[in-house]
Amino acid sequence: MPLHISRILHAGYLFDCEGTRIAFDPIFENPFSRNCHAFPPVRFDHEQIRRQRFDAVFISHFHDDHCSLDSLDLLERTTPIHIYCLFDELFDMVRALGFADVRPLRIDVPVSVGPFTVTPRIAMDPDVDSMFQVEAAGLKVLNVVDSWIDPDTLPALAGHGPWDMVLWPFQTMREIEVLSPSRASPAPPALPPHWIEQLQVLHPRFVVPSSCQFLQEPWSWYNQAFFPISYRQFQQEVEAALPAARVVRMNPGVSMRLDGNALLPAPALDWVVPVGDQDVDYACDPQAVPPSTGEIARRFPALTGEQAERVKAWCGTGLLDKYRDMQLPEESYFEQPRIWRLSVFDHEGVATHRHYRVEGDSIDPVAADAAPLSWTTEIPAAKLYAALELGESLTSMYMRINDGRFDAATELELETAELVDDPLIRCLFNDAFGAYQAAQLRRLKANT
Asked: Which Pfam family, an example, fits this chain (predicted)?
């Protein structure tokens, strides 16, 4: 019997063999994660999706572009949901949505579903995510999801082969570089060498450029800066390095029939509906000039009075309380006293500046002229509110850090500073788990 593999979106796939259907990281939303727009563009027929029956769903990790309660809400509540996650809160939230059979996945412990055996494999960061080895009909597929393979685990993965197909995360997304574009190094012109080396060790018959199947809002400068690798470049470099392998692009809704001899087109998913041209590719422009944070802030609607007061109060007291409760990372830039300026831009692009003296685990408001600046953070007010109340993630917040010049001594010290040591990032995201899903659950419960 052949194995049918269909792309849903991003890291989402449907596997079908002998009438058994299992889904991986299913996302049935466009946009998803608030501002990730399907690329190429599609829409989802939610009424048809509600009629679908899956024998199991496997979720590789808790990030909201892989585990979305809005998407799971479309599924039959008797569907077994298998999740790799170290936090009980996520399992509780999925159960609260009404799913009766929610099970934790364990590394190297196989799960059998009809003709399928699905084995979670260790990823680069085992505290966060996993990969999947999928076996059926005598075939083996490695779904790397959007992790990377630790060099120490590569020999074991090679030993689990031979691999008929590898679903490979093909973008080196520049999430950190766009936070401080004037300080970012140019994107390398070629694929990372270790990608090629690892694929050569795995030696698959077919490679699918996987994950990262989205763009940001149509107006966003991220669309020229976030995704440096095109489908065309990936195919050319991988096929040149692996002459026995074939790179196969799978757009949302596309289905393929895999057997021991060939990979052939199969009928597309009729509940994933293409919109417009599907033969599109990423185009990075290293010369693109990013707009100011004020310009970006004007793209978002005005906060209500209550929402604006929430942001103002948090910047005045909540941020301070949160920062003082956290433990400073080792070798932090803020071990020494620093003057930090936080600038929050409203819907008219007007900034409210707040200054703080930060030293170690202490933070206090200061006057604007207290001392020379040594760290700056800018953010649209709408995005700060979304992070506080809606669980918005860092990659969609259009935060801008240290995107200007300081005095010579500060510039020298900043050369070894980590952008994620930023006080706002730490206050919003350190020790925060499942905020996006929790906000989804509150809304879904309120609507019912």
From this structure: Lactamase_B_3
